[in-house]
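Lab notebook, bench 4. Still working through the backlog of constructs that have no structural model yet. Next entry is a single chain of 204 residues. Request: give me the structure tokens for it.
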Amino acid sequence: MSDAGSTHGDAPHPAHDPYIVRRLEAAERQVAQLRRMVNYVFVGVAALLGLTAAVIYLAGRHGMPGMVASVVESREFLLRDQNGEVRGVWGTEGEGGIRLVLQDSADKASVKLSLLADGSAGVTLSDLAGNPRLVLGLLPDENVSVVFADGAGVTRAVLSLNADGSTSLVFAEKHGVTRAAVGVDAAGQAIIATGEAEAIDTVQ
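Model written out:
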């Protein structure tokens, strides 16, 4: 009886059993691994949400890569250079016209394409000072004109083709006063004129 009691008293306590201790340590390691995995999942989800938001934002501003919007609507488009300066304007005018203007780095209109509400169309080329130097115009009555101006904006020559078939080439001096003209009238007769006549309207 005494031997049995001493043997029972020497048995290890369950809390200090090596097998149970190893199981507890293994369980703690598994819990720690699960926590790390959960943290990684949270980080991955957050990164995915951020990337999705960035893609949606960029797609809204620039369109999806490799895709082009079928329709883009606006009343005016501005073209800016690397310094943010406006170099081009494409838009509508107040009375129903349309204009396309390309500007140089000095903010001067160098090229202008216009289409008015009445169907008149024109192209204007301006110099570095912003003065119109060449104007090509087509009016609703089918008259076509090419106007040449000097640096002061004074018209110096006009080449015209009229709807009735007549043509003319007019030359003016530096004040815009006509000095010579040649052409062909609607009947096919040649026209030659020299001397002082009315001043030609200056280019606007």
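Notes after review: DSSP finds two helices and eleven strands in the chain. Confidence is low (pLDDT under 50) at residues 1-7, 198-204. Flag for follow-up if needed.
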